[in-house]
């Protein structure tokens, strides 16, 4: 099938590449010429495991191309996927300007039937807005009778495992109103859900709602675990044992129960805010979502509080090694990363930070440009040099079994503040290190 993907970011690029892998001819459009240049030069603008190989293979096969030419991209796809950003507005609601602009471009230029598929995470009712924008552009051209379909197809991939998630999805949700759109979407996704009944076909509003409900449910789990971890410390319990104890109940399950330094990234923070706004606008402000967000903001400070409790408010003269900057492993995404808050707070108290991340350093330098006192190290060892204590902020695999002797020998104060509970307290202490983690004695 001929597919156009509008917006070549984390979601759009993975969607385009994976759809082309199944034989579709995909054209990816972006308004950012720098991104398209990188792609046309044989690279990819983001770090995502396995993505470069899929992109290169399908570009070579002539099934995947990248362009900034809107006219060409609208002409190309029978299916037009909108995968542009929906960042938070000042009040927290989703900013739909990019979605609307993409829809208007389609209406302005389409000459035959298009199925317009919204893949961006958008508030309930956006399908109607997309339909209205396209219809408005068609009317301006005197083409009001031209038919088109609108669909909602929210994306559930996880950054860091995006290709694997897209290729083997837990479920595909499609919100659609007409048979033709449903048939095309079923055909498109059939290869990804072969022999598995994993397509959920519903109405557009329910599909839009599913995405927010899913992310907010997950964010709630994290905030609840984080709150429990703080309580565990107070009452002298071990949150890791509590996690295992409750996770073995199949109604609770083991995933997404890890306490840490708060959730970040481009999705949970903005989606929690956006659903809270939707609730407020509909006359039922959400107490749950407000609490989820508040707990998360507090949790980003949990390591800072432990550091201040240990050293006092004035951290001048102290240098902290920081392992991990990205909001989670296997990505270079720094959007809303808790590391940014932690670094800012430490610098404000006069400390220096020597940070190391396996892939996110370049992006970190961009988003924290000019932050005096923050420097970047080439590796774990270099980050430790001349540092007083170590902070672990992202649970990259390479941090899981480090050179404990080396850490103990490098750190002046021999203290590890672990925001991800990576180590057995007994073990790390046996190397002569003081160990402060989350929710453990
Ligand atoms: P992103 O910011 O990485 O990419 C968006 C891209 O759209 C940018 O490259 C931008 O230049 C481009 N763009 C903006 N307006 C355009 C237009 N009119 N025409 C063509 N291109 C345009 O965003 P990301 O992370 O890929 O997210 C996209 C949507 O998917 C958001 O709604 C997000 O909530 C949702 N989502 C994101 C996930 C993630 O893990 N990043 C997972 C699931 C959903």
Question: Can you describe this structure?
Answer:
The radius of gyration is 24 Å and the shape is elongated. The mean pLDDT is 97. The chain has 3 domains: 2-202, Rossmann fold, CATH 3.40.50.720; 212-297, N-(1-d-carboxylethyl)-l-norvaline Dehydrogenase, domain 2 (Orthogonal Bundle), CATH 1.10.1040.10; 300-436, Rossmann fold (3-Layer(aba) Sandwich). Helix 11 (268-281) packs antiparallel against helix 12. An 8-stranded mixed beta sheet has the order 3-2-1-4-5-6-7-8, sandwiched between helices. It is α/β, with parallel strands linked by helices. It starts with a strand and ends in a 5-residue tail after the last strand. The chain has helices at residues 10-21, 33-40, 51-60, 70-76, 97-109, 126-140, 162-167, 179-189, 204-235, 239-247, 268-281, 287-299, 302-311, 338-348, 361-367, 380-384, 404-410, 425-429; strands spanning 2-6, 25-29, 64-67, 79-82, 115-118, 149-152, 172-176, 199-202, 319-323, 352-356, 374-376, 389-392, 415-418, 434-436. The protein has 18 helices and 14 strands. Helix 8 (179-189) links the parallel strand 7 (172-176) and strand 8. 1,4-dihydronicotinamide adenine dinucleotide binds next to helix 1 and helix 5.
Measured between the Cα atoms of the first and last residue, the distance is 57 Å
Largest β sheet strand count, sense and barrel closure: 8 strands, mixed
Proportion of residues in extended strands: 5-15%
What average pLDDT do the residues reach?
97
GO molecular function, one term: NAD binding
Binding site for NAD(+): 30, 35, 86, 121, 159, 270, 335
Active site: 267 (nucleophile)
Domain UDP-glucose/GDP-mannose dehydrogenase C-terminal: 321-425
């Amino acid at each position: 099938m001929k597919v156009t993907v509008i917006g070549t970011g984390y979601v759009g690029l993975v969607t385009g590449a994976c759809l082309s892998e199944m034989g579709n001819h995909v054209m990816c459009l972006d308004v950012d010429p720098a991104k398209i240049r990188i792609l046309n030069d044989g690279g990819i603008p983001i770090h995502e495991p396995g993505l470069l190989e899929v992109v290169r293979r399908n570009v070579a096969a002539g099934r995947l191309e990248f362009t900034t030419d809107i006219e060409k991209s609208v002409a190309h796809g029978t299916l037009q996927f909108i995968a542009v950003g929906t960042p938070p507005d000042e009040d927290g609601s989703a900013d739909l300007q990019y979605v609307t602009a993409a829809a208007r471009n389609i209406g302005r230029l389409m000459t035959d039937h298009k199925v317009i598929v919204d893949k961006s995470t958008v508030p309930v009712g956006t399908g109607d807005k997309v339909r209205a924008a396209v219809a408005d552009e068609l009317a301006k051209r005197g083409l009001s009778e031209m038919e088109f379909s609108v669909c909602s197809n929210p994306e559930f991939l996880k950054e860091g495992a995006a290709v694997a998630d897209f290729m083997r999805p837990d479920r595909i949700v499609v919100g659609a109103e007409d048979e033709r759109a449903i048939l095309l979407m079923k055909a498109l996704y059939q290869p990804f859900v072969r022999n598995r009944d994993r397509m959920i076909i519903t109405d557009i509003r329910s599909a839009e709602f599913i995405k927010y409900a899913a992310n907010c449910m997950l964010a709630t789990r994290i905030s609840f675990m984080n709150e429990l971890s703080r309580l565990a410390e107070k009452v002298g319990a071990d949150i890791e044992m509590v996690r295992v104890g409750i996770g073995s109940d199949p109604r609770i399950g083991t995933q997404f129960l890890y306490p840490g330094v708060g959730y970040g990234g481009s999705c949970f923070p903005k989606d929690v805010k956006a659903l809270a706004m939707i609730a407020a606008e509909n006359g039922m402000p959400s107490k749950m979502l407000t609490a989820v967000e508040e707990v998360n903001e507090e949790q980003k400070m949990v390591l800072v509080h432990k550091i201040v409790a240990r050293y006092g408010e004035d951290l001048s003269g102290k240098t902290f090694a920081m392992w991990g900057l990205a909001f989670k492993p296997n990505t270079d995404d720094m959007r809303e990363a808790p590391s940014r808050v932690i670094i800012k707070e430490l610098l404000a108290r006069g400390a220096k930070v020597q940070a190391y991340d396996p892939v996110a350093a370049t992006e970190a330098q961009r988003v924290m440009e000019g932050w005096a006192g923050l420097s970047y190290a080439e590796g774990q060892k270099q980050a430790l040099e001349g540092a007083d204590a170590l902070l672990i902020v992202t649970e990259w695999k390479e941090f899981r079994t480090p050179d404990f002797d080396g850490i103990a020998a490098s750190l002046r104060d021999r203290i590890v503040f672990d925001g991800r509970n990576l180590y057995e307290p007994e073990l790390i202490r046996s190397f002569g290190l003081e160990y402060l983690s989350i929710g453990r004695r």
